[in-house]
Write a structure and sequence with these properties.
single chain, 204 residues, mainly alpha, 9 helices, disordered C terminus
Length: 204
C-alpha cells in the first residue's frame, strides 16, 4: 500500500475513533509508519488531509451506491442487499465502517475553503437504506405500525443500523458487528414484514 493511501486510511480511522479535533498529524504519521514531513509532502495540513480522506473514500461509497441501485428487483430485496453490504463491508473492509462512524449522523467540523466553519456533507449511508425501506412500504412489503408514519419507520431503521455499527465498532468484545447486524435485521424483518397471504388451493 502506498504512503498516501495509508495516510488516508489512518486519518479516516482516527476521525471515526476520536473526532476531527482530537488527533494530530504526529499520530497519523506514526500509525501510518511514516514521518510527519510525508504528510506535508502530499497535503497542506490536517484539514486538507481530512478532506482528502473523506473525498477519497466517499467516492468509493458513491460507486457502491450506484451498483446497489442498478438492479430491477422488489424493494424488500434491495433492503436485504443494503444490509448485506453494510454487514460484509463492516467486517471485511473497515474503511466503510470508519467513514460511517466519522460522518454519521454528522461529522465534527472539518474546515473547507468554501465553508471554513461548516461541516462536511455526510456520505449517502442514510439514503442507501432509507429509500428502499420507503419503497418497500409503498409496495406493501413492509408495514407501518399503527400510530407511526412511513418516514418514522425508515428513520428508525437507519438510526438503529448506525447505532449498532457504532456500538459494535467501539465494543467488539461484547458482540461482533456481523452478529449484531444479523440480529437487528432479523428483528426488523419480523416486526415490519407484511405477512403474505397463503395462495388458495384451486377447486378440483
Amino acid at each position: 500500500m502506498e504512503t498516501r493511501e495509508r495516510l488516508l486510511e489512518v486519518t479516516l480511522r482516527l476521525m471515526a475513533e476520536k473526532g476531527y479535533e482530537d488527533f494530530g498529524l504526529r499520530e497519523v504519521a506514526e500509525l501510518a509508519g511514516t514521518k510527519t514531513s510525508s504528510i506535508y509532502h502530499f497535503y497542506g495540513g490536517k484539514a486538507e488531509l481530512c478532506r482528502a480522506a473523506v473525498e477519497h473514500f466517499g467516492a468509493m461509497i458513491h460507486e457502491d451506491e450506484k451498483a446497489l441501485g442498478d438492479r430491477e428487483e422488489p424493494p424488500i430485496d434491495t433492503v436485504r442487499r443494503v444490509f448485506d453490504w453494510i454487514w460484509s463491508t463492516s467486517t471485511t473492509e473497515g474503511w466503510r465502517r470508519d467513514l460511517g462512524l466519522a460522518l454519521e449522523p454528522a461529522p465534527k467540523t472539518i474546515p473547507t475553503p468554501e465553508r471554513p466553519d461548516g461541516p462536511f456533507d455526510p456520505p449517502p449511508f442514510v439514503r442507501m437504506l432509507r429509500e428502499p425501506v420507503l419503497a418497500a412500504i409503498d409496495a406493501g412489503q413492509l408495514r407501518v405500525p399503527e400510530g407511526y408514519t412511513a418516514d418514522e419507520v425508515a428513520s428508525f431503521v437507519v438510526v438503529s443500523t448506525i447505532g449498532v455499527v457504532r456500538m459494535t465498532a467501539r465494543r467488539p468484545d461484547e458482540i461482533s458487528v456481523d452478529r449484531a447486524l444479523g440480529l437487528l435485521f432479523d428483528s426488523l424483518m419480523r416486526a415490519l414484514t407484511v405477512d403474505q397471504p397463503t395462495p388458495s388451493t384451486p377447486a378440483t
